[in-house]
Design goal:
This protein is of the alpha/beta class. Strands 5-4-1-6-9-10-11-12 form an eight-stranded mixed β-sheet, sandwiched between helices. It has a two-stranded antiparallel ribbon with strand order 2-3.
Length: 257
């Protein structure tokens, strides 16, 4: 059985020493990999687990094919390559992927100059409106080209753009796989968690979505709700409990297909 698991959190480069990082240790992804390996070994069945994770994330204690990817672009490329190499039965996408990536790094002086220059074009017959001109200048300012941006700068402006949604790729790349997505909210009610899970499930063609709240993660009492396509909802506590719940339902779905 071929299983693909993503784990950890992505980080986007500002310069060679600075990053914008999504929190994600990879601990839950590692427990999921261990639970799959244990469940299948107990049945005498072999499995190949591809484990895509960020550099500092927790690694499983069982044998897996580890592939390191730190930013959204690298994750996308690694997922595409893995899915081109083999057909997966199960995909568990637990990695905390950043919603945004760095488009440009500038400062107030450079951005002001870009805005003034763009507005000057209007006087020369540019067909853009003032609003469009300012927006274009703000979103695409002169980029600071430096391996390490000087810490002497009084201000630094980081322009972000929406990153591609990795979970949206799987139905194209692994159409037959049982797909488990993850949804993390903060200070949300159970109804909110279920609603968000159902929306993600429907939008991306998931078979299951594990919805959890950052409050329980920080408190060290990780809880999760596994929401299925049929509307089923089951709760688990602790990372080991959540991993076991995901493994049980994913394997059942594969065998029923």
């Amino acid at each position: 059985m071929n299983i693909l698991i993503t784990a950890g959190g992505t980080s986007e480069r500002i310069d060679d020493v600075r990053r914008i990082t999504n929190l994600g240790t990879g601990a839950l992804g590692a427990r999921v990999a261990e639970a799959f390996a244990g469940a299948l070994a107990s049945e005498g069945q072999e499995c190949c687990i591809t484990y895509i994770c960020s550099k500092g994330s927790v690694r499983p204690s069982v044998s897996v094919d580890v592939r390191v990817a730190d930013d959204v672009g690298a994750v996308e490329a690694t997922v595409r390559q893995a899915c081109a190499e083999r057909e997966y039965d199960i995909v568990v996408h637990s990695m905390a992927i950043g919603d945004y990536r760095v488009r440009a790094v500038s400062d107030a002086g450079l951005m002001t100059g870009a805005v003034m220059e763009r507005l000057s074009y209007l006087a020369c017959g540019d067909s853009s409106s003032p609003e469009e001109a300012v927006r274009d200048a703000l979103l695409s300012p002169p980029d600071i080209k430096a391996a390490k941006i000087s810490s002497d700068k009084e201000d630094l402006v980081v322009v972000l753009e929406r990153a591609p949604k990795i979970i949206a790729l799987y139905r194209e790349l692994a159409p037959r796989a049982v797909l488990v997505g993850f949804k993390l909210l903060s200070d949300a009610s159970e109804d909110d968690l279920v609603s968000a899970a159902c929306a993600l499930l429907e939008k991306n063609g998931c078979d299951f979505v594990l919805a959890n709240d950052m409050g329980t993660v920080r408190a060290g009492a990780h809880e999760g709700l596994l929401v299925g396509r049929s509307g089923t909802c089951e709760r688990a506590e602790s990372k080991e409990g959540i991993a076991g719940l995901i493994v049980r339902h994913a394997l059942e779905s594969v065998r029923q297909a």
